[in-house]
């Protein structure tokens, strides 16, 4: 039997409504004091960055995670025991990031390994 958690698994929720368009602005204004934000003019990130394909994502995530931790390619390579050129090749999509390597990178960069897969 599952136990109830003490807090909800997420801190935010997305609401969607169907109704008359003439009442949309009023509904949005009534929800703002409750902490809701209008995201109707948001753009999906894939539309905002069409230059990145699915094949580019692991390398982009690696580069961003490394930058967030303030590490150079050389420093990261030393942390996980690889040549620096392997880090460069992974960031540029010339070397695949396997599951074991993703786990090593995740531990070194304090991030879930799943972002690299």
Give an overview of the whole structure.
With 117 residues, the chain is mostly helical. It has a domain at 57-116: lambda repressor-like DNA-binding domains (434 Repressor (Amino-terminal Domain), Orthogonal Bundle), CATH 1.10.260. It has helices spanning 24-31, 45-48, 57-68, 73-80, 84-91, 99-109. The longest helix is centred in the middle third of the chain and has 12 residues, at 57-68. The protein is elongated, with a radius of gyration of 21 Å. The two termini are 33 Å apart.
List the helices and strands and how they pair.
Elements lengths: L23 H8 L13 H4 L8 H12 L4 H8 L3 H8 L7 H11 L8
Helix pairs in contact: 4-5
Number of helices: 6
The residue-averaged pLDDT reads: 89
What structural class results from the helix and strand content? mainly alpha
Principal-axis shape equals elongated
- The total beta strand count reads 0
End-to-end separation in angstroms reads 33 Å
Taking the sheet with the most strands, its summary is: none
From the 3D coordinates, which CATH architecture of one domain would you assign?
Answer: Orthogonal Bundle
Short summary:
The chain is mainly alpha-helical and 117 residues long. Helix content is 44%, strand content 0%.
Tag the structure with descriptive keywords.
6 helices; elongated; single chain; 434 Repressor (Amino-terminal Domain); 0% strand; 117 residues
